[in-house]
């Protein structure tokens, strides 16, 4: 539709074409595992939210934020960012060892959360068979300096390509640890509370999702969590098989699930806005 607002990224972006992929859900769980390894960041979550009883809600709110900022109008994306910044500005956390009180919107903490998410999205998508060239992967990281700005970061201080992202993780590794809060997140992700009648489904379905997300973590994360790292080739095969199965589900059927960001974007911009991997590299 001529003149319609394409949003922050638009159909020509790598972000637009990748974020409709179903493997984003597994990538999101990987991001939670990774984020939990920063003690100050994970305390900010556990001390200010009902994570234990509303982790599903938190995961869905994060997915809604990503969907809004990717496929929504510019106004909707800016409004979502302003809402996140306002909430974060009112929250703080306490270091139990030192008694220090600190804000959860410290730039260093926001940067960790951002980089853990972007790394997880990119890593799981590529490793599961979503074809992205190195140049497209760099474009993806650079595009997400926009989403970093929305949560309150200076885009100039955010990694802009794979090399800068790798350098960032190398720099932050001494700050990482699997403390009590990380163990709590780990335990929850493997055994989330559910209705007794759904426990068998949790064991058969969800545990496999969580285990695959965990298995895809970098070696240092496995070392910190204290569990042996699975063979990389085995994890890659599992990710590719899972991606193959999930991508066989018709996109239109997947996109019918609320909140239907992609369908609304296509209604706003026209059918040409339909995200598809083959559109990359044009």
Automatic annotation (TrEMBL):
Highest classification ranks of the organism: Bacteria, Bacillati, Actinomycetota, Actinomycetes, Kitasatosporales
Protein name, UniProt field: Oxygenase MpaB family protein
Top-level class of the enzyme under EC nomenclature: oxidoreductase
InterPro entries xref list: MPAB/Lcp_cat_dom
Residue ranges annotated for the ER-bound oxygenase mpaB/mpaB'/Rubber oxygenase catalytic domain, each copy included: 16-247
An example molecular function term from Gene Ontology annotations: oxidoreductase activity
PANTHER family in alphabetical order: BLR2777 PROTEIN (PTHR36151), ER-BOUND OXYGENASE MPAB_MPAB'_RUBBER OXYGENASE CATALYTIC DOMAIN-CONTAINING PROTEIN (PTHR36151:SF3)
Keyword Membrane: no
EC number of this enzyme: 1.-.-.-
UniProt keyword terms in alphabetical order: Oxidoreductase
Species whose genome carries this gene: Streptomyces olindensis
